[in-house]
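Exercise 7. Given the encoded structure of a 339-residue chain, write a plausible sequence.
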């Protein structure tokens, strides 16, 4: 008896490997929640999880998030939900969200609203993991955008294959099983299983940075040869290992030095790459808002150790400030702004 088509098998194997690597493959079968938009990537993921559900390996469910940003978005969400049900996922939830005006652009606002909806849906169905359909192509686009923005190693490491969901880091796991698969594989898997993906018009709108990155990658591959997307994804995986090690070292240093004030002599002993991560962890751990903390802020705080010439306090988000006094870096809320 012939097995499934290669693309279909690849998607199923990718999900299994993701669950094993994350320690989710267990008895009784774990409850999984597939985030489905109706596009090829998430439909292929829904089909793979549906297959594992029918085998009794997992208990698959799904959530379709409607951002309300396009005309007839509710109809698109309904069709995606129906496709998930045909794949054997149950329950299939629908979540309509309002995209906030964050000042960071529509992509950032939609992403924030989406992940809040995913976390709420995971709680509702008691899922141990939420699965998204991000592919190797998405990873390459993320890395290219990071390069264009001059980002550091953590950003260039791209999207992690697994991480805790939620701001506090104590929610269910967020898994991306398809980061090792090309987008053409998910498209072929849909075709083989007679799934009809929705073609998001935003995927061809150059107003979105990810669309421009996708076009740029196509041009680069034409000039440099095929395989660029896979090479960028491999670079991201290598950088992820390096970034994780540096963050672990910074965490150890923070545990050793404790909270502020931090002695300059001890800070100067840390390697620069570790100290940079120490600042981010130490400042946000003390209460500085992580979302507003920029490289400019961190560079100014770093100068209190490496380029000290009597400069005044460094203004930080959330009305915090860092200053150097008595051979130590102090962190405090600016006088008169508490509360």
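Solution.
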């Amino acid at each position: 008896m012939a097995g499934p088509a290669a693309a279909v098998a690849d998607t199923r194997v990718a999900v299994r490997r993701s669950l094993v690597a994350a320690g989710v493959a267990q008895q009784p079968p774990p409850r999984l929640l597939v985030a489905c938009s109706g596009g090829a990537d998430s439909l292929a993921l829904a089909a793979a999880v549906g297959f594992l559900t029918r085998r009794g390996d997992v208990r698959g469910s799904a959530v379709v998030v409607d951002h309300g940003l396009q005309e007839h978005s509710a109809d698109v969400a309904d069709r995606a939900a129906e496709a998930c049900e045909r794949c054997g996922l149950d329950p299939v939830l629908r979540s309509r969200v309002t995209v906030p005006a964050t000042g960071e652009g529509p992509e950032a606002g939609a992403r924030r609203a989406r992940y809040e909806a995913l976390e709420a849906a995971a709680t509702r169905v008691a899922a141990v993991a939420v699965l998204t359909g991000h592919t190797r192509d998405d990873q390459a686009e993320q890395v290219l955008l990071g390069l264009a923005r001059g980002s550091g190693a953590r950003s260039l490491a791209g999207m992690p294959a697994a991480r805790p969901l939620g701001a506090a880091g104590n929610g269910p796991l967020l898994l991306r099983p398809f980061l090792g698969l090309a987008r053409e594989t998910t498209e072929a898997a849909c075709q083989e299983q007679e799934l009809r993906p929705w073609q998001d018009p935003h995927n061809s709108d150059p107003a979105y940075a990810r669309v421009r990155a996708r076009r740029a990658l196509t041009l680069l591959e034409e000039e440099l040869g095929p395989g660029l997307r896979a090479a960028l994804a491999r670079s991201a995986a290598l950088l992820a290992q390096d970034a994780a090690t540096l963050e672990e070292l910074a965490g150890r240093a923070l545990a050793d030095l404790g909270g502020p004030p931090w002695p300059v002599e001890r800070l100067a002993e840390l390697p620069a790459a570790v100290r940079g991560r120490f600042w981010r962890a130490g400042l946000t751990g003390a209460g500085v808002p992580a979302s507003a903390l920029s490289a400019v802020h961190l560079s100014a705080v770093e100068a209190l150790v490496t380029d000290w010439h009597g400069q005044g306090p460094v203004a930080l988000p959330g009305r915090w400030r860092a200053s150097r006094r008595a051979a130590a870096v102090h962190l405090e809320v600016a006088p008169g702004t508490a509360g």
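Remark. The chain has a mean pLDDT of 88. Students should compare their own answers with the one above.
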